[in-house]
Amino acid sequence: MGENQTYWFATERAAEGARAAAGELDHLRAKFAHWADPVPAILAATPAHTVLRNDLYDRAAARHRARGRVVLVGDAAHPMRPHLGQGGCQAIEDAAVLAEFVGRCADPAAAFAQFVEFRGSRVRGLVRESRLIGTVLNARPAALAAALTRATAVIPESVLTRHLASVAGGSAFCTPT
């Protein structure tokens, strides 16, 4: 993204196509004004023209990720909610692992089939976890979602850090033997 830049997102259960009357950034600044730093500081530093508001949709993973000389990677193959921050990461992992299989096998169709088999368990677990986090954060009634979100404060930071490290590094770029 470049030096001194970051990517952030927030989710809120809302009607499809809904827009904040006062503008998306002002809505977010008001909604998160009482959150701990650095959230308000990040919102204060965000230019309004850079805020995108898009609806999120769940879509099942492709039933067939490879067929003949065609293979799907990234969100085309295994779409996931942004709550775990792994959508783009998994597309990059897909590309690296796919390149390894293609480099080892003269037949693209066979390489693609082997790639799909190899990557399946890694991405299935991340898709499930990402969906679960999104479901919890956007639970209904809203009071339940708020309570669940606040409950995460009792989880020791070391536990969260260890888990996120396992997500980010678990089998990242682990190539087939």
Strand proportion, as a percent range, falls in under 5%
Question: Strand order of the main beta sheet, please?
Answer: 1-2
Overall pLDDT confidence:
88
Total DSSP E strands: 2
N- to C-terminal separation? 33 Å
Share of helix among residues?
Answer: 40-55%
Which secondary structure elements does this structure contain, and how are they paired or packed?
Blueprint: H1 24-31, H2 39-45, E1 66-67, E2 70-71, H3 87-104, H4 108-137, H5 142-151, H6 157-169
Antiparallel strand pairs: 1-2
Helix pairs in contact: 3-4
What do these coordinates show?
By secondary structure, this protein is mostly helical. The protein is 49% helix and 2% strand. The chain contains six helices and two strands. Strands 1-2 form a two-stranded antiparallel sheet. A hairpin with a 2-residue loop joins strand 1 and strand 2. Helix 3 packs antiparallel against helix 4. It is elongated. The mean pLDDT is 88.
